[in-house]
């Protein structure tokens, strides 16, 4: 495992230009990226896992997130269109969804 002066660390494969292939990069704040890298950048498929439980699964291209799915800590995936968060059989938002929007 390689530890960096920033407090982050990396465990995985390397090439002559740096982190490359597959690995796990842990940021100083506890966020963890696990997935593919190229030339020291997120590149390919991977996941960002946050200490609070949320996960972003996605595809990166030279460090830029180009496709993504956000999954909340209870396992509910966010969907940009036709999201069923406040509709049955949703199990987590009933108290929130029962309130008129003006009260949220």
Automatic annotation (TrEMBL):
SUPFAM superfamilies: Histone H3 K4-specific methyltransferase SET7/9 N-terminal domain (SSF82185). It is found in: Cell projection, Cilium, Flagellum. Keywords: Cell projection, Cilium, Flagellum, Repeat. It comes from the Eukaryota. The keyword Ubl conjugation does not apply. Its main location: other. InterPro entries: MORN (IPR003409), Morn5 (IPR042814). GO terms for cellular component: motile cilium. PANTHER family: MORN REPEAT-CONTAINING PROTEIN 5. This is MORN repeat-containing protein 5.
């Amino acid at each position: 495992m390689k530890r960096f002066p920033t407090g982050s660390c990396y465990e995985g494969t390397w090439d002559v230009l740096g982190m490359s292939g597959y690995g796990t990069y842990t940021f100083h704040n506890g966020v963890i990226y696990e997935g593919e890298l190229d030339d020291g950048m997120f590149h390919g498929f991977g996941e960002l896992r946050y200490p609070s439980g949320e996960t972003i699964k996605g595809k990166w291209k030279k460090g830029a997130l180009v496709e993504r799915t956000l999954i909340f800590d209870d396992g509910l995936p966010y969907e940009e269109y036709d999201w069923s968060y406040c509709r049955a059989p949703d199990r987590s938002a009933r108290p929130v969804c029962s309130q008129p929007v003006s009260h949220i």
